[in-house]
Amino acid sequence: MIKQILSGFAVFLLTLNVHAGLVVEVTQGIDAPTPVAVVPFEWAGNAVTEDVAQIVSDDLGRSGFFKMMSRDNMLGTPSKRDQVFFRDWRISGNDYMVIGRMEPTDGGQIKATIELYDVIKEKQIWSESVNGNANNLRDVAHYISDRIFEELTGLKGAFSTRIVYVTA
Fold this sequence. Notes:
Strand content: 15-25%
Number of strands: 6
Helix content: 25-40%
Largest sheet: 6 strands, mixed
Structural class: alpha/beta
Order of helices and strands: HEEHEHEEEH
Number of domains: 1
Distance between the termini: 55 Å
Low-confidence stretches: none
Number of helices: 4
CATH topology: Rossmann fold
Shape: extended
CATH class: Alpha Beta
């Protein structure tokens, strides 16, 4: 009799659905994210469908490592080194700034030239030109975000990857 009860109980336990969930516990964070300004990129050509500078700013801001400056608070929109007044960017509380230019090239390509500056030291940290076309400007923007993230943190950026995340 006890064997039958135990057997019945074992069968009952086996028929229960077991659901396992993935739980990610965040144990560390950044108390004081680094202030960065991504200035709207100068565009020399016909209108494009993507605002590359805004995508870069959004990527960096979502990382949690950086506090992005609002465009509304920018005193100017330089696109070349000789147009940058570092004093203004220091006063506005930024440690780093990104400027850029985009221009059409032969063959329907778009060339984006990006420069990253240390505002405190008044020094260029990184510069690169990236080619793309009107159909892949989001990919170009994510690549630029990855490079800037790596320059500032020493860690590989993940903005060009295909990941799913939830924000709170």
